[in-house]
Design a protein that fits this description.
Layout lengths: L1 E5 L6 H12 L2 E4 H14 L7 H7 L5 E3 L8 E3 L2 E2 L7 H11 L2 H16 L4 E5 L2 H5 L5 E6 L2 H11 L6 H17 L12 E4 L5 H18 L1
Parallel strand pairs: 1-6, 1-7, 2-6, 7-8
Antiparallel strand pairs: 3-4, 4-5
Helix pairs in contact: 1-9, 2-4, 2-5, 7-8
Length: 220
């Protein structure tokens, strides 16, 4: 059982994915955190994140390990807890450039597929899960929301450190980068169910996804 939940930032992917995994007794994997971890390592080790060749050469060096407990997802880089550091604005500003490098994506896809094969069932969130990482996923969900709703949510997560207007502009810029990259762009799989979360509460989104998964389970 692999549940792929894709979509841009601010649509509620993380909250939804963790809640769905907990409710269904499945493991959970945040692939975005893995790309952030890779980016954080690059920044800490003096790699020019705008130099695709340098990033590609270093992509195989860090050891990134993701926990799969939806109640307490953890991530380490070379044995060091990176859960907090990977959420800084510096990492956020650089992660799209690092994520666009084919060698980085190839490395992360290997790690992601290994995590799924070692579990009895998993909810995986990201931007290319249903299209590239797990094209044969049991259930594919693509979350969307209006730019205004996404910006308001993300600004709230940042505790007002950035205005809603600035957050909206940053989200739109990242959408363009993630959707326009050559390797594994952000895209909705043709067989994914789209869920617009703009007017929905987290509980409503979770219930809808859980229902879709249970319906699929019943037909297997």
């Amino acid at each position: 059982m692999i549940v792929a939940i894709d979509g841009p930032s601010g649509t509620g992917k993380s909250s939804t994915s963790k809640a769905v995994a907990a409710k269904l007794g499945l493991s959970y994997l945040d692939t975005g955190a893995q790309y952030r971890a890779m980016t954080w390592w690059m920044l800490n080790n003096g790699v020019d994140v705008d130099d695709a060749v340098a990033v590609a050469d270093a992509a195989g060096k860090p050891v990134i390990v993701s926990g799969t407990d939806p109640a307490a997802p953890a991530i380490t880089v070379d044995g060091e807890d990176a859960s907090g550091p990977i959420r800084t604005q510096e990492v956020t500003a650089a992660v799209s450039a690092v994520s666009a490098v084919p060698e980085v994506r190839a490395r992360m896809v290997e790690v992601q597929r290994a995590a799924a094969t070692s579990s009895d069932g998993i909810v995986v969130e990201g931007r290319d899960i249903g299209t590239t990482v797990f094209p044969e996923a049991t259930v594919k969900i693509f979350l969307t929301a209006s730019p205004e709703a996404r910006a308001a949510r993300r600004s709230g997560e940042l505790n007002g450190a950035q205005s809603v207007a600035d957050t909206r502009a940053a989200l739109i810029k990242r959408d363009a980068a993630d959707s326009g990259r050559t390797t594994s762009p952000l895209a909705k799989a043709t067989d994914a169910v789209e869920v617009d979360t703009t007017q929905l509460s987290l509980e409503q989104v979770v219930e809808r996804v859980v229902t879709l998964v249970e319906e699929k389970r019943d037909t297997r």
